[in-house]
Specification:
13 strands, alpha/beta, two-stranded parallel sheet
Length: 314
C-alpha cells in the first residue's frame, strides 16, 4: 500500500485515477484548487463518492508553502501529477495562466520531491507536444521542438524539467502524453461534452476544419490503466504515448453522437483554428511493450457510455 497525492484529483482524469487507486487499497491524497475554469460543482461531485477514503487538500500547486504542508503532513511514496491548465484554444488568450499552472506548478512539485526524498514522479504531458509533426503515427522518438500553441510549449517544458530533476537528483520520472481523453465525468470544454449539450439544446456546434480533422480519441478507463501501470513500473525516466492508436474523423464522431442521442446537429462549419493540428494518432508500441498498455474501448462504445452518464447526471 502506497501513499499517493494526485494533483488535479478532482479533475476528469485525476478523479478516475483516484478511484482506481482507492479501490486497490492505496492511500490517496486529492490535491486540487477547484478553480472556476469550468463548473466547480462537477469537480466536487466527482470526488463525493470517495467519502472518507482519501484526504482532500484544497490548495493550488503554484503555492509552494501550501504544497510543502501536503508533503510534510504525509509520508508520500509517489506523486501522480495530473493538475494543469488544459485546452489549446484557451491558451491563445490566457498564456500566463499556463505558465503559472503548468510550469511553476510542476517545478514546485519536482522541488518538493527533491527535498522530501520522494523518488517517483508520474506526470501528464500531452499529444499536443507533437505540434505540426508530419510523420504519422506520432512516436516518442519524434522531434517535439516546434510546439504550435502555448499549451503545448508548457507541456514540453514539463518534460524537460522532469528530465533535469531525474538527471541531477535521481528522481524517477515518467511523462504520459495523453491523446484526446473522453468519457463519463468529462470536461465541459471538450468536444464530446460540448456537442452533446448543444445538440440536446438544439444549438449550433462549432465544427473546425469543416469536420475534416482527425483525432485519436482515448477512453478514460484505458488512460487510467496506463497511469496506474506507470506508477507501478516507476521507470528512471521515460515518456509514453497513451492513446487508442486509431483515428476518427470529426464528422464521423459527430454522427456517432447524433445516432446515440437520436437527434441531428446544427453545424457551424469553420476553418482550422490557430494552435490546432489536422490529425493526432498515437504510436503506442512502446507503451504496449513497457507498460502492458492495451486500450479496450472503441469510439462507439465510449460515446455510448458517456451519453448514458450525461443523461443520468443532468
Amino acid at each position: 500500500m502506497k501513499t499517493v497525492p494526485v494533483t488535479g484529483g478532482a479533475g476528469f482524469i485525476g478523479s478516475h485515477v483516484c478511484e482506481s487507486l482507492i479501490k486497490r487499497g492505496d492511500k490517496v491524497i486529492v490535491v486540487d484548487n477547484f478553480n472556476d475554469y469550468y463548473d466547480v460543482q462537477l469537480k466536487r461531485n466527482r470526488i463525493k463518492k470517495f467519502n472518507d477514503n482519501c484526504k482532500i487538500y484544497e490548495v493550488d500547486i503554484t503555492d509552494y508553502v501550501e504544497m510543502e504542508k501536503v508533503f510534510s503532513e504525509n509520508k508520500i511514496d509517489q506523486v501522480c501529477h495530473l493538475a494543469a491548465q488544459a485546452g489549446v484554444r484557451y491558451s491563445i488568450e490566457n498564456p500566463f495562466v499556463y505558465e503559472q499552472n503548468n510550469i511553476l506548478g510542476t517545478l514546485n512539485l519536482l522541488e518538493l520531491c527533491r527535498h522530501k526524498k520522494v523518488n517517483s514522479f508520474i506526470f501528464a504531458s500531452s499529444s499536443s507536444v507533437y505540434g505540426g509533426n508530419k510523420k504519422i503515427p506520432f512516436s516518442e522518438s519524434a522531434s517535439v521542438d516546434k510546439p504550435i500553441s502555448i499549451y503545448a510549449a508548457t507541456k514540453k517544458s514539463t518534460e524537460l524539467m522532469a528530465y533535469t530533476y531525474h538527471d541531477m537528483f535521481g528522481i524517477n520520472c515518467t511523462g504520459l502524453r495523453f491523446f484526446t481523453v473522453y468519457g463519463p465525468w468529462g470536461r465541459p470544454d471538450m468536444a464530446l461534452f460540448k456537442f452533446t449539450d448543444s445538440i440536446l439544446k438544439e444549438e449550433k456546434i462549432d465544427v473546425y476544419n469543416f469536420g475534416k480533422m482527425k483525432r485519436d480519441f482515448t477512453y478514460v478507463d484505458d488512460i487510467v490503466t496506463g497511469v496506474i501501470s506507470a506508477l507501478d513500473h516507476n521507470y528512471p525516466y521515460e515518456i509514453f504515448n497513451l492513446g487508442n492508436s486509431d483515428t476518427v474523423e470529426l464528422n464521423y464522431f459527430i454522427e456517432l453522437i447524433e445516432k446515440e442521442l437520436g437527434k441531428k446537429s446544427l453545424k457551424n462549419l469553420m476553418p482550422m483554428q490557430a494552435g490546432d493540428v489536422p490529425e493526432t494518432y498515437a504510436d503506442i508500441s512502446k507503451a504496449r511493450k513497457m507498460l502492458g498498455f492495451d486500450p479496450k474501448i472503441g469510439i462507439g462504445e465510449g460515446i455510448k457510455r458517456f451519453i448514458k452518464w450525461h443523461k443520468e447526471y443532468y
